[in-house]
Protein backbone atom coordinates (compact mmCIF):
# COMPACT_ATOMS: atom_id res chain seq x y z
CA UNK A 1 0.00 0.00 0.00
CA UNK A 2 1.15 3.52 -0.66
CA UNK A 3 1.75 6.25 1.87
CA UNK A 4 -0.78 9.07 1.69
CA UNK A 5 0.40 12.60 2.49
CA UNK A 6 -2.28 15.28 2.67
CA UNK A 7 -1.34 18.96 3.04
CA UNK A 8 -4.00 21.63 3.26
CA UNK A 9 -3.99 25.29 4.20
CA UNK A 10 -7.48 26.66 4.75
CA UNK A 11 -9.55 29.23 6.61
CA UNK A 12 -12.20 26.71 7.62
CA UNK A 13 -12.00 24.52 10.69
CA UNK A 14 -11.10 20.84 10.32
CA UNK A 15 -12.81 17.66 11.52
CA UNK A 16 -10.28 15.40 13.23
CA UNK A 17 -12.44 12.27 13.00
CA UNK A 18 -12.90 12.75 9.26
CA UNK A 19 -9.16 13.27 8.74
CA UNK A 20 -8.38 10.05 10.65
CA UNK A 21 -10.97 8.18 8.60
CA UNK A 22 -9.26 9.37 5.38
CA UNK A 23 -5.99 7.77 6.52
CA UNK A 24 -7.52 4.46 7.61
CA UNK A 25 -10.42 3.74 5.28
CA UNK A 26 -10.07 0.58 3.23
CA UNK A 27 -6.73 -0.31 4.78
CA UNK A 28 -5.74 -3.17 7.06
CA UNK A 29 -2.11 -2.16 7.57
CA UNK A 30 -2.67 0.82 9.88
CA UNK A 31 -2.09 -0.01 13.55
CA UNK A 32 -1.59 3.47 15.00
CA UNK A 33 -2.72 7.02 14.35
CA UNK A 34 -1.23 9.88 16.37
CA UNK A 35 -2.94 13.25 16.17
CA UNK A 36 -1.66 16.61 17.37
CA UNK A 37 -3.98 19.61 17.47
CA UNK A 38 -2.69 23.12 18.11
CA UNK A 39 -5.36 25.35 19.68
CA UNK A 40 -5.54 29.12 20.10
CA UNK A 41 -4.89 30.05 23.75
CA UNK A 42 -6.88 32.82 25.40
CA UNK A 43 -3.77 34.49 26.72
CA UNK A 44 -0.18 35.20 25.68
CA UNK A 45 2.43 35.98 28.36
CA UNK A 46 -0.31 36.41 30.97
CA UNK A 47 -2.28 38.93 28.88
CA UNK A 48 -5.74 38.02 27.57
CA UNK A 49 -6.07 38.02 23.79
CA UNK A 50 -9.19 38.45 21.67
CA UNK A 51 -7.97 36.51 18.63
CA UNK A 52 -5.02 35.54 16.47
CA UNK A 53 -4.74 36.29 12.78
CA UNK A 54 -2.52 33.94 10.79
CA UNK A 55 -0.78 35.02 7.61
CA UNK A 56 1.10 32.62 5.33
CA UNK A 57 3.22 32.57 2.19
CA UNK A 58 1.03 30.79 -0.39
CA UNK A 59 3.03 28.35 -2.46
CA UNK A 60 6.03 28.23 -0.16
CA UNK A 61 3.98 27.09 2.85
CA UNK A 62 2.73 24.03 0.95
CA UNK A 63 6.22 23.38 -0.48
CA UNK A 64 7.93 23.65 2.91
CA UNK A 65 5.41 21.37 4.63
CA UNK A 66 5.79 18.95 1.70
CA UNK A 67 9.56 18.82 2.18
CA UNK A 68 8.99 17.89 5.82
CA UNK A 69 6.35 15.25 5.12
CA UNK A 70 8.74 13.76 2.52
CA UNK A 71 11.50 13.67 5.10
CA UNK A 72 9.21 12.11 7.73
CA UNK A 73 8.23 9.40 5.24
CA UNK A 74 11.88 8.67 4.50
CA UNK A 75 12.76 8.44 8.20
CA UNK A 76 9.86 6.36 9.57
CA UNK A 77 7.74 3.51 8.18
CA UNK A 78 4.49 5.48 7.86
CA UNK A 79 1.25 4.53 6.17
CA UNK A 80 -0.08 8.09 6.02
CA UNK A 81 0.42 11.71 7.04
CA UNK A 82 -1.83 14.74 7.10
CA UNK A 83 -1.09 18.36 7.92
CA UNK A 84 -3.92 20.89 7.98
CA UNK A 85 -3.03 24.48 8.90
CA UNK A 86 -5.62 27.21 9.28
CA UNK A 87 -5.08 30.85 8.31
CA UNK A 88 -7.11 33.99 8.91
CA UNK A 89 -8.71 35.09 12.18
CA UNK A 90 -8.88 32.43 14.89
CA UNK A 91 -10.52 32.95 18.29
CA UNK A 92 -9.38 31.41 21.61
CA UNK A 93 -10.45 27.79 21.85
CA UNK A 94 -10.47 27.30 18.08
CA UNK A 95 -8.20 24.90 16.22
CA UNK A 96 -5.07 26.22 14.47
CA UNK A 97 -3.17 23.22 13.17
CA UNK A 98 -3.61 19.46 12.85
CA UNK A 99 -0.89 16.87 12.32
CA UNK A 100 -1.77 13.20 11.82
CA UNK A 101 0.73 10.40 11.51
CA UNK A 102 -0.33 6.83 10.79
CA UNK A 103 1.80 3.71 10.86
CA UNK A 104 1.71 0.01 11.59
CA UNK A 105 3.14 0.53 15.07
CA UNK A 106 2.89 3.44 17.48
CA UNK A 107 6.55 4.44 17.77
CA UNK A 108 6.88 5.72 14.20
CA UNK A 109 3.58 7.61 14.41
CA UNK A 110 4.50 9.34 17.69
CA UNK A 111 7.94 10.34 16.44
CA UNK A 112 6.81 11.51 13.01
CA UNK A 113 4.05 13.69 14.51
CA UNK A 114 6.46 15.34 16.92
CA UNK A 115 9.10 15.82 14.22
CA UNK A 116 6.55 17.46 11.90
CA UNK A 117 5.26 19.85 14.56
CA UNK A 118 8.78 20.88 15.62
CA UNK A 119 9.72 21.58 12.00
CA UNK A 120 6.47 23.39 11.24
CA UNK A 121 6.96 25.74 14.18
CA UNK A 122 10.47 26.73 13.14
CA UNK A 123 10.35 26.56 9.32
CA UNK A 124 6.87 26.78 7.83
CA UNK A 125 6.16 30.32 6.60
CA UNK A 126 3.25 31.33 8.84
CA UNK A 127 3.05 34.37 11.11
CA UNK A 128 0.68 35.07 14.00
CA UNK A 129 -0.62 38.49 14.94
CA UNK A 130 -2.50 38.85 18.21
CA UNK A 131 -5.36 41.16 19.05
CA UNK A 132 -5.61 42.36 22.63
CA UNK A 133 -6.86 45.39 24.55
CA UNK A 134 -3.54 47.07 23.74
CA UNK A 135 -4.14 46.73 20.01
CA UNK A 136 -2.56 44.29 17.56
CA UNK A 137 1.01 43.03 17.53
CA UNK A 138 3.04 40.32 15.79
CA UNK A 139 3.95 37.41 18.02
CA UNK A 140 7.71 37.03 18.36
CA UNK A 141 9.41 33.77 17.49
CA UNK A 142 10.67 31.73 20.42
CA UNK A 143 14.22 30.45 20.50
CA UNK A 144 13.11 27.13 21.96
CA UNK A 145 11.12 26.38 18.80
CA UNK A 146 14.37 26.49 16.80
CA UNK A 147 16.03 24.30 19.43
CA UNK A 148 13.15 21.80 19.26
CA UNK A 149 13.56 21.55 15.48
CA UNK A 150 17.36 21.31 15.67
CA UNK A 151 17.29 18.17 17.83
CA UNK A 152 15.97 16.19 14.84
CA UNK A 153 18.96 17.12 12.68
CA UNK A 154 21.05 14.11 11.84
CA UNK A 155 24.66 14.52 12.91
CA UNK B 1 12.67 39.52 -10.30
CA UNK B 2 9.64 39.53 -8.06
CA UNK B 3 10.06 40.38 -4.38
CA UNK B 4 7.47 39.53 -1.72
CA UNK B 5 7.19 40.76 1.84
CA UNK B 6 5.31 39.17 4.73
CA UNK B 7 4.07 40.01 8.24
CA UNK B 8 5.72 43.10 9.76
CA UNK B 9 8.21 43.40 6.91
CA UNK B 10 5.21 43.85 4.58
CA UNK B 11 3.52 46.29 6.96
CA UNK B 12 6.63 48.42 7.37
CA UNK B 13 7.32 48.65 3.63
CA UNK B 14 3.65 49.16 2.88
CA UNK B 15 3.36 46.78 -0.07
CA UNK B 16 3.18 43.01 -0.32
CA UNK B 17 5.11 42.55 -3.57
CA UNK B 18 6.90 44.36 -6.35
CA UNK B 19 9.15 43.76 -9.34
CA UNK B 20 12.71 45.02 -9.06
CA UNK B 21 15.83 45.16 -11.22
CA UNK B 22 18.82 45.52 -8.92
CA UNK B 23 22.21 46.37 -10.46
CA UNK B 24 24.69 43.57 -11.15
CA UNK B 25 26.77 44.47 -8.10
CA UNK B 26 23.90 43.19 -5.95
CA UNK B 27 24.85 39.51 -5.88
CA UNK B 28 23.62 38.02 -2.60
CA UNK B 29 20.55 38.17 -0.38
CA UNK B 30 22.54 40.32 2.02
CA UNK B 31 23.48 42.71 -0.82
CA UNK B 32 19.82 42.91 -1.81
CA UNK B 33 18.75 43.80 1.74
CA UNK B 34 21.32 46.61 1.70
CA UNK B 35 20.16 47.82 -1.72
CA UNK B 36 16.48 47.74 -0.72
CA UNK B 37 17.25 49.53 2.57
CA UNK B 38 18.52 52.50 0.57
CA UNK B 39 15.30 52.84 -1.42
CA UNK B 40 13.55 54.88 1.26
CA UNK B 41 12.53 55.27 4.87
CA UNK B 42 9.94 52.50 4.85
CA UNK B 43 12.53 50.01 3.55
CA UNK B 44 15.18 51.23 5.98
CA UNK B 45 12.70 50.68 8.82
CA UNK B 46 11.74 47.19 7.63
CA UNK B 47 15.38 46.12 7.30
CA UNK B 48 16.80 48.04 10.27
CA UNK B 49 17.83 44.75 11.92
CA UNK B 50 18.98 42.68 8.93
CA UNK B 51 20.05 39.73 11.10
CA UNK B 52 16.42 39.18 12.14
CA UNK B 53 15.16 39.03 8.55
CA UNK B 54 14.67 35.61 6.93
CA UNK B 55 14.72 35.10 3.18
CA UNK B 56 13.51 32.56 0.67
CA UNK B 57 14.38 32.16 -3.00
CA UNK B 58 11.78 30.42 -5.16
CA UNK B 59 9.99 29.01 -2.08
CA UNK B 60 13.12 27.64 -0.36
CA UNK B 61 14.78 29.09 2.75
CA UNK B 62 18.21 30.60 2.04
CA UNK B 63 21.04 32.13 4.07
CA UNK B 64 22.14 35.79 3.69
CA UNK B 65 25.16 34.78 1.56
CA UNK B 66 22.98 32.95 -1.01
CA UNK B 67 23.36 34.24 -4.56
CA UNK B 68 20.29 35.81 -6.13
CA UNK B 69 21.34 35.13 -9.74
CA UNK B 70 18.53 33.42 -11.63
CA UNK B 71 15.98 33.89 -8.84
CA UNK B 72 12.39 34.35 -10.00
CA UNK B 73 10.92 35.21 -6.61
CA UNK B 74 12.64 36.38 -3.44
CA UNK B 75 10.74 36.77 -0.19
CA UNK B 76 11.64 38.59 3.02
CA UNK B 77 9.89 37.94 6.32
CA UNK B 78 10.38 37.77 10.10
CA UNK B 79 11.13 34.52 11.94
CA UNK B 80 8.15 32.20 11.57
CA UNK B 81 5.51 31.74 14.24
CA UNK B 82 3.12 29.15 12.80
CA UNK B 83 1.98 25.85 14.20
Task: Set out the fold topology.
The complex is a heterodimer of chains A (155) and B (83).
Chain A: E1 4-10, H1 16-24, E2 32-39, E3 43-44, E4 47-48, E5 51-56, H2 60-75, E6 78-86, E7 88-90, E8 95-103, H3 106-123, E9 126-132, E10 135-138, H4 143-150
Parallel strand pairs in A: 1-6
Antiparallel strand pairs in A: 2-8, 3-4, 5-7, 5-9, 6-8, 9-10
Helix pairs in contact in A: 2-3, 3-4
Chain B: E1 2-5, H1 7-13, E2 17-19, H2 29-37, H3 41-46, E3 54-57, E4 60-62, E5 73-77
Parallel strand pairs in B: 1-5
Antiparallel strand pairs in B: 1-2, 3-4, 3-5
List keywords for this structure.
heterodimer; A: 155 residues; alpha+beta; four-stranded mixed sheet; 4 helices; 33% helix; B: 83 residues; 5 strands; 27% helix; 23% strand
Q: Could you walk me through the main structural features you see in this protein, from its secondary elements to its overall organization?
A:
The complex is a heterodimer of chains A (155) and B (83). With 155 residues, chain A is of the alpha+beta class. In chain A, the strands form three sheets. Chain A has a four-stranded mixed β-sheet, with helices on both faces. In chain A, strands 7-5-9-10 form a four-stranded antiparallel β-sheet, with no helix packed on it. In chain A, helix 2 packs antiparallel against helix 3 (106-123). Chain A has helices spanning 16-24, 60-75, 106-123, 143-150, and strands at residues 4-10, 32-39, 43-44, 47-48, 51-56, 78-86, 88-90, 95-103, 126-132, 135-138. In chain A, a hairpin with a 2-residue loop joins strand 3 and strand 4 (47-48). Chain A is globular, with a radius of gyration of 16 Å. Chain A is built from four helices and ten strands. By secondary structure, chain B is of the alpha+beta class. Chain B is built from three helices and five strands, in the order E-H-E-H-H-E-E-E. Chain B has a five-stranded mixed β-sheet. Chain B starts with a strand and ends in a 6-residue tail after the last strand. The mean pLDDT of chain B is 97. Classes of the chains: A alpha+beta (155), B alpha+beta (83). Chains A and B meet through strand 5, helix 2, helix 3 and strand 9 of A and loops of B.
Amino acid sequence: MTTIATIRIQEADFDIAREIAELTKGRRDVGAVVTFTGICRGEENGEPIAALTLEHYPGMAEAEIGRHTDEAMSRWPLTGLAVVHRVGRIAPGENIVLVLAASQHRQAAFQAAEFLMDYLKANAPFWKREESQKGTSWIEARGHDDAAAARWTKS
Amino acid sequence: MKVKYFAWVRERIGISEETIEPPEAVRTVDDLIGWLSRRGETYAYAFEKPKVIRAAIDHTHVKPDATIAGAREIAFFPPMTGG
